[in-house]
Amino acid sequence: MWKMGVLKVEIVLLLNLLLVSGDVTNNDVSEHSLELTQSLNLARQELIQETCRRFPPRYGLDQLPPSQLEHILIDEEHKLLYCYVPKVACTNWKRILMILAGKWNDTDVLSITASIAHTPGMFRNLSTVSRPERDYMLENYHKMVIARNPFERLLSAYRNKLEGDTPSAKYFQDRVGRRIIKAYRENPSNESLEFGHDVTFKEFALFLTNRSEEMADVVNNEHWQPITNLCHPCLIKYTLVG
């Protein structure tokens, strides 16, 4: 679990970045820290742009079905679009945005449960707006995405969704784990086939890399979908990259 001090740092960082292009200065953040933040953010933007030049997308933004933009949340008050990526602290960022947008009365971030943070409809998302409104927001709003080492993210998803005995893990073991075991394990036990509770990381990796058609409904789950499929960084120029 994140410590409150870490969360405060994240909030300061977000506010700092939001003020980078404005006229307001934050007296609590040193000028040197602001310069470092700007420099690092620009370097990340340039890395994305260089990678997209090397591997250009095969489609344009207008060719995307609206469902492909569901992960991009809208905070109209702060003119911010945030693309949330599961297993990259998205629960905590949703909590932060709820407080910043006045959707929660308490200032204690951890007073917001995960279930509340993920409540459908808490924020509008980019799939719900008209094309002209979408284009206006993409042109005029800050656009934020938080990334993570992709292998760390996959390991986190495996541990959180296919190991353990939490309700969330049980859900994924029943709906995904059982199918992985049936498809990729030789001579599985009846217990494994019934509960799907002991998927190995090797089996999980085979499941992700083979991408068989019969597994398409679960292999495309948001918790292990590549960030490029969720946030489309080659089509949307993110101004805040964490």
Automatic annotation (TrEMBL):
GO terms for cellular component: Golgi membrane. GO terms for molecular function: sulfotransferase activity. GO terms for biological process: carbohydrate biosynthetic process. InterPro entries: Carb_sulfotrans_8-10, Sulfotransferase. This is Carbohydrate sulfotransferase. It is found in: Golgi apparatus membrane. Belongs to the sulfotransferase 2 family. It comes from the Eukaryota. It is an enzyme of class 2 (transferase). Its EC number is 2.8.2.-. Residues 1-22 form the signal peptide. It holds the Pfam family Sulfotransfer_2. It is a single-pass type II membrane protein. Keywords: Carbohydrate metabolism, Glycoprotein, Golgi apparatus, Membrane, Signal, Signal-anchor, Transferase, Transmembrane, Transmembrane helix. Its main location: Golgi. The lineage of its organism: Eukaryota, Metazoa, Ecdysozoa, Arthropoda, Hexapoda.
